Amino acid sequence: MKRLSSVSPLVVLTAALWVLPAAAPAQPRSDFAPGGPDQPRAMLTKYCFTCHSTRLKTGGLALEALDLQNAANDAEIWEKALRKLRGRLMPPPGLPQPPQKDIDAFSAWMENAIDSHATGPKAGYVPIERLNRTEYAASVKTLVGVDVNEKDILPQDIRVGGFDNIAASLSISPAFLDQYITAARHVASLAVGSPNPRVSSVKYLIANVQNNDEPLPPGTRGGVRFKHNFQADGEYRININDLSVGLYTGQVENESTLVIMIDGKIVFRKPVGGPADLALAVRKGADGRAAIMERFTKIPVEVQAGVRDVAVAFIDRSHIESDENVANAFGGAGLGGFGSAATARMPSLRDGIEISGPYNPTGISRTPSRALIFVCDPKKTGEPACAKQITGTLARRAFRRPVTAEDVNRLMPFYQAGRQDGGSFDQGIEQVVAAVLASPEFLYRAITAPKGASPDAGFALTDLELASRLSFFLWNTGPDDELLALAASGGLAKPGAVEKQVRRMLADPKASSLVTSFAMKWLNIGDLDAVQPAPELFPAFNEQLRHDFSTEAQEFISSILLEDRNVLDLLTADYTFLDERLARHYGVPGVAGPQFRKVTLPEQERWGLLGKGAVLLRTSYGDRTSPVLRGAWVLDKLMGTPPSPPPPNVATSLDQKAGEVPKTVRERLEQHRAKAVCRQCHGVIDPPGLPLETFDAIGQYRTIDRQAKQPIDASTVLPNGVAVNGPVELRKELADHPARFAETLTERLMMYALNRELEYYDMPQVRAVVHEAEKNNYKFSSIVLGVVNTDAFRKQGAAPSAQSSGKETAVKTAALVK
After folding, report:
1. Which end of the chain, N or C, is less surrounded by CB atoms within 10 Å?
2. pLDDT band with cut points at 50, 70 and 90 for residue 212
3. pTM check: above 0.85
């Protein structure tokens, strides 16, 4: 399908006369009346047929030739035209524009004409797909209880529309498969464990663990918290490598107490600093300092096997009234990056924490991983029978279906291989776990056509396929025992069964994946590392603040989606989640301490997504704001009308020229927009971005451009003719069109749920979901249930003839695994 339009000479000549108005222009009078196709055709004749006539066919498109009496027959064209029209991309800026009420009326008429006579497929085709690395990590955690950092073991997946779970992009190569097999062996080793592992040492650098999402235990500060895998029961030794007890003795003037906690229990507590340590450091110099540090090396602790929570922190009283200007080794304000009324004249963690062991191991306790795997006791049932039971149970959960005796028999040789040369029962099971995790049945999801079905016809998913699709949609992992058992018995097809399961699953903690894997990626705020603010321009920014932006966004989105609120609250909510550091950055008073908590925002500029630091940072460059990026973000993420990319070889830089008098970003943008070819797109993109100029590149509110030393002008006129000034008025304009935002969210949610890009024939179902959700005040659960109840979700469309079958791909993959 060609683009709906291209730049014609007529457009360029007309656009040269267009200038972005400073005030709202008078809107043309609407003479659009509802009814048959006569009025829609009149609007098209007046505003569209000049270019898209049968004679000119601008962009290869002749709207004039289409039959409005049977608009559904040309739904693919009209769906694209509707999106262009709603986004004011057509007619291009500079050409006569229809009144907004006419656009709304035409859109409603056309959508009704398409929806009431939809002729396209009811469902699209989803090819066989491998688990992406996020799904792999979540599935491994559910299956064998092992936490893995997917970024460390698997490569980045290709993103489509911001999502990395689109089936068409989840192919595999032999090299890629090698990484999955290596990961399977590593996970199996961690899950099963060894009763007598070699002594090993792991060092946790402060810079790598201080941004852990888990807050420090109450009553402590200036520390770190992390997870450590204790491989077996036994003695471990902890080294605190550097407590800043250095050449300058000021750090030990005041006594502090260092504590080490494992799973919330204090296993070590010892003071450091105070008069005795100060005297020792002064009298004996380096030897004295070494003697102080000796107390914090090779600290013995007895720990049982398993992944456990470790916290190393200080208990200390306040020494100063205010910490506003106190900095510490982390480079942030206050100890540990927070102002905690702590003083820099005290010890602090600098180099890191090292854990070594186990020494004198005594075996392996029943860790969460072993509880998931070892569902029987070989001493009671016999080793062969227990091995088969473990294999069958693991395979059923991993393959997301009931398993047969043949499935188990195919895996048992791996157990037998592990027992060779005197291998233990556990070593045999470890090989089974690795084989299951490397199996195509685990790594791939496929929808199989019923026997005898025509390849040109769609079909309904089986209960097991529906359960798998539902689980990966809501949890990013396979079905749990309840859902799997229900699907295997045919119970999922019973009336009300799916809704009951959806509500149960939305209440489960695993539904947080809808925030991290759906919402954060839909809004393009999941990779804040993509923007690196220039330190000379933004000295207040640091990595802790970047982490806070992400935490705030996730907590805020969770409070709306997972608490089942109206999704419009994403735009309008008057609260957010802050810790002390982020509150200080935003200028919000009355927030103390490192814990994030719900805070009512005193200033409306911060309400909703438009005031979130994550959004403002991600839509900026490292040295300046970008009304273009911010405007495109609003159009795409909130309005569902993504702008066209810039033409090739067009200069887009707004950098200041050397020796030039500093200008505001708005002034530089106006110079850029003076070019006719640029005005066509920037006339649509820039207006929704300019009201956000009240925030700088790191999300701080401002009234003055510090570089240009000029007042910020955040006023603009949106393409629909509405004048707005600043984020408050922009947010109101967006919130005044609830169905538009709800439709945008529903489109993206359905794409995420189906693992494919949406097509024109999906739009009637999208709109039906939104109409039904309106009756329930646009609650998130009503949109989720609407998506789950669509034919698009419950059926598989016909396979494209040019695409190889899923079975053929699976056979090739199985051969690679073998």
Report:
1. C
2. low
3. yes
